[in-house]
Amino acid sequence: MKPGINNYSEIGKLNKVLLHRLGDEIEGLVPDNFERLLFDDIPYLKVAQQEHDRFADLLRENDVEVIYYVDETVKALKNPKVRKEFVGRFINESAIYSDAVKEALEEYLMSMTVKDMVEKVISGVKKSEIAVQSNSLADYIASGYPYYTDPMPNLYFTRDPGACVGNGLNIHHMSTVARRREALLLQYMFLHNKEFAPEGSKLWYDYDHAYSMEGGDVLVLSKDIVAIGLSQRTTVAGIERFAKNLLDKSSFKKILVFDIPKCRAFMHLDTVFTMVDYDKFTIHPEIEGPLQLFEITLNKDGSPHFASIQDELENILKIELGLPAVDLIRCGGNDAQAAQREQWNDGSNTLAIAPGTVVTYERNYVTNDLLDKKGVKVLTIPSSEISRGRGGPRCMSCPVNRDDL
């Protein structure tokens, strides 16, 4: 195992992964704020935590080191000066208009232990927790809303705020206001936690870059090729900036940009397909027609070269990965109802922890059975509650270190 950040594939033996165990932020969900916080259901926290703990335990049983967002952020914020800077930035990005509220929030958060503060930043600060008189019209208009700072219920999908690519990290500018501050935690981990990102770790994309990009759209297909989804959440300008940095400063040779439908069903590239073995992929049945791709490479003078590809996914993967054939395993198989049902519960969003070994939700039994018949070892986790956030095992994990293939 190479030390630090090392991620040159989707399927190499997983050594280290970043997770977030669901906390009180989930209890902040109510039907009135579903649209604001990007949920359409409320997980039962106690059971969701038990399911997430089973996920973490399963990874540990397979020799994966599990690290957590809260613990790694705490390490990054040990220095009081760094902590004060972080709190200031967090408050400034939480749409607080009154100076009196900002000052009260800073005092409240800085009075806590570092761990309590990090957990509070994630779970949200309620107006009932701080007695302060606001002099802002905006705050007066929003006075019926219970939070000064919104909770971050989507953080258990740790795939999206960042992505470890090669020996470096993306810290993403998230597409939605509801999720943007999640990546602020990761930025401080990168800058101030050398256990997480040792000296020499590269940064391909930063939190402060202007254009949105999310980790569910980043697939490391091989040591030479990274696939990116041009999706509802990832912009062409974000992709171009990432591609230039990566191709200029790493050993990767090519970026494949998949132009996917801009809708919730195809929110990220990893809801369309995931890699489960050298030549096997799980797929959303609706992407089997011709796909539009754009290829980014560098000319000899370092300038970008663009090319357009239109072909079936099977042919694209075969050619790009130099394989005689690939096996595309449909979510739900040939049963249209099973495909819709299991796609809703992220049946094609698998996490490979070694070539041909994947973690899936046990509820997607049709797809799991198909994977098993194709020779893929399927490790299932319970998911009655964690699946309510509409994301699968790949969404819930940010691989930090994998063995090279």
Verbal overview:
The chain is an alpha/beta fold. It has 2 domains: 14-68 and 153-402, L-arginine/glycine Amidinotransferase, Chain A, CATH 3.75.10.10; 95-149, no CATH class. It is 31% helix and 22% strand. It has 13 helices and 19 strands. The chain has helices at residues 34-37, 45-61, 69-76, 80-92, 99-110, 114-123, 137-141, 177-180, 182-192, 236-249, 313-321, 336-344, 365-373, and strands spanning 14-19, 65-68, 125-126, 147-149, 162-165, 168-171, 202-205, 218-220, 225-230, 254-259, 273-277, 280-283, 291-298, 304-311, 327-330, 351-354, 357-361, 377-381, 398-402. The strands form 6 sheets. The protein has a 5-stranded mixed β-sheet with strand order 8-9-10-13-14. A 3-stranded mixed β-sheet has the order 2-1-19. Strand 9 (225-230), helix 10 (236-249) and strand 10 (254-259) form a beta-alpha-beta unit. The longest helix is centred in the N-terminal third of the chain and has 17 residues, at 45-61. The radius of gyration is 21 Å and the shape is globular. The protein starts with 13 loop residues before the first strand and ends with a strand. The relative contact order is 0.16. The mean pLDDT is 93.
